[in-house]
Write a structure and sequence with these properties.
single chain; mainly alpha; Fumarate Reductase Iron-sulfur Protein, Chain B, domain 2; 2 domains; 8 helices; 51% helix; binds iron/sulfur cluster
Length: 134
């Protein structure tokens, strides 16, 4: 018989923080995997959307270390097909906000190739720094 998973207070606090910021009832996800099969960016992600949901349910802060939360483009493919009506884009956004509140920068201007930066539209750079830096 599979053992019951017991979450620590730390895990429960993190789970509740994600639910509060996202407005999504992440504990209702039943891990059907439809979101992972629907997401156009799953191949680029270190963890699939359904794994992101599972780690969020378990209140594991390690979920913020995966590139998946930054790659999610809020395309709503998963939400349109989720049998539980969950919006993973809001969960990913909540995880980004929590990460950014820790003042962790996911990009730094020094690491952008100068020639590449010169080619990019200014609005893309501004948007990237607004989304990816604390
Ligand atoms: S489609 Fe919905 S219920 Fe299924 S794994 Fe994804 S978030 Fe959970
Ligand atoms: S909203 Fe995010 S997780 Fe959902 S299908 Fe689009 S990119 Fe993937």
């Amino acid at each position: 018989m599979a053992g019951k998973i017991v979450l620590s207070h730390h895990n429960i606090d993190f789970q509740k923080q994600i639910e509060k910021i996202s407005g999504e009832k992440i504990t209702s996800c039943d891990q059907c995997g439809v979101c992972s099969g629907s997401c156009p960016f799953t191949d680029e992600m270190e963890i699939t959307p359904s794994t992101m949901m599972k780690m969020s349910q378990l209140g594991l802060p390690e979920v913020m270390e995966a590139n998946s939360i930054w790659i999610c483009a809020s395309c709503f493919n998963c939400m349109a097909r989720c049998p539980r009506g969950l919006d993973l884009s809001k969960v990913a956004e909540a995880l980004r906000q929590i990460s950014l509140r820790q003042a962790v920068d996911s990009i730094t201007i020094e690491n952008i190739d100068k020639e590449e930066a010169a080619r990019l539209p200014s609005i893309a750079l501004v948007g990237a720094f607004r989304k990816l830096t604390g």
